[in-house]
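User: C-alpha cells for this one?
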Amino acid sequence: MVYGRGVGARLAHIVGIMKLSDKKSGAPLAGMRVVDLTRVLAGPSCTQILGDLGADVIKIERPGVGDDARSMGPPYLDSDNPHSLDSGYFLSVNRNKRSLTLNLTQKEGQDIARALIGMSDIVVESFRRGMLARWGLDYASVSRGRKDLIYCSLTGFGQTGPYAARGGYDFLVQALGGLMSVTGEAQGPPMKAVGGLVDIVTGLYASVALLAAVHHRNEKGEGQYIDMALLDSQVAYLGYVAQNYFLSGKEPGRWGNSHPNIVPYQLFEAADAPIILAIGNDAQFRRFCVFAGVEGLAQDERFVSNSQRVRHREALTAILAGLIDKHRARYWLDGLTGVDVPCAPVNTVQQVFADEHVRARGMTVEMAHVLAEEERVRLVASPMKFEKTKVSYRYAPPRCGEHSVEILRELLDMGEEEIEGLIERGITSA
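Assistant:
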C-alpha cells in the first residue's frame, strides 16, 4: 500500500538530502533520521544519545499504551492522573524524540513503518529475536534495495547462541553475567548495581557501534546490521575484574567499598559522616601521610608502594580508620583537597544536583512540557560537550502519540481524512 501523494518522489528527495554533512542545526547528526522501535531502557538510552546529537528520532509506540516504561512508576509527571503514561523512568531516556503510535500487528501499521524506514538512515529495535520478521520489519526485509541502511538490534542475549530466544532484563543479566557476584560487601549477599547499569551500558555501546557504522557508510557507501546483547555488554563491562581472573585463576569475590588492586581506595567513617579516600599512586599516599601527621607510614616497608599496600591491606586500613574517625568529614575533605589527595563526600542525589561543580557544568536542562508544573520539566542533561558542534535540546520526552499527525502529514504526505481513518481503525492515535 502506498500512502499520500507523490511518496516515491518525496522518498528519493529525503534520502538524498539526509546525509551526515547536513549541519544546518549545528548538531553533529543533523540531517539524519532514526526509526526507533525500542522500549524500556537500553534501546531508548541509545536513541536519546542520537537525538541529543541532532538526529530526527521517530519513536514508534503502541497506540494507547506506548513504551512499557511509560507506566513504570510512580513517580509520574502528571501525579494527579492514575493512568499517566509519563513516568520518571520514561522521561529519563526519551528526550529529543517524536512519538508516532502504530499498531504493528496490522498490515497498515507495518506498511507505514516500512515507508518511514525507507526514508531513514538508521533503525534501532529491541524486540525479541524473530518478532519483527513476522511483520516484515526485520533487517533482511527492510534492507532490500537499501544497501546503505544501518540497522541495530538490542536484545538480552543476541541473535545467535543457545539463549538467543530468551527475554533479557537488566537484573537477570547482572546475575547471569557475573556482576552481582562481585558487587556488595565481602560477607554479604550478591548485590545488583542500581540505575539499570547493564541497560545503559548496552545503550552506550550501541550508540558507539552506530556511529562507527555511519562512518563506514560515509567511507564505503554501505550500511550494515549490528547485533547488540545485554549479556555481551555486561561481560565486557567486567573489565579488569575479568582480567584479574584470567591472570590469577581465582574468583574475584566481593570487595564492598574497597578496591581489589588499589589501597587505600575505599570508604572511611569520619567523626560525623563517611568519606571516600581514592589514593591512586604512591605520591598521593605520601601527601596524605604528611597531612595526617603520620609521615612514617609512607616509609614503612609494608606501605611504601601500592603493591605492598595491597598485600598489607588489613593492617593499613585499621591504622587509617583510627586516624580518620578522629576528625569531622569537612576537616579531611578540605585539607586533603588542598594537598591534591583525591577524596569526596558521599552525596545524596539531592546534594549532587546542588553541588557547585555539577551546577557549573550544566548537568540539568529544563524543557517545555504541558503536563509539568509551570509547563517546564527538569531533566538530566547530556554529558557531551563539544567545542564546535553542540548537543541539541529540541523535544521534551513526548506524550504518547504526540507527533503522530505531524509525522504522517510531513513525511508520508497524508491528508486529514486519511489520518482520521487510521485513527478510527486503531492503526494510530493522536
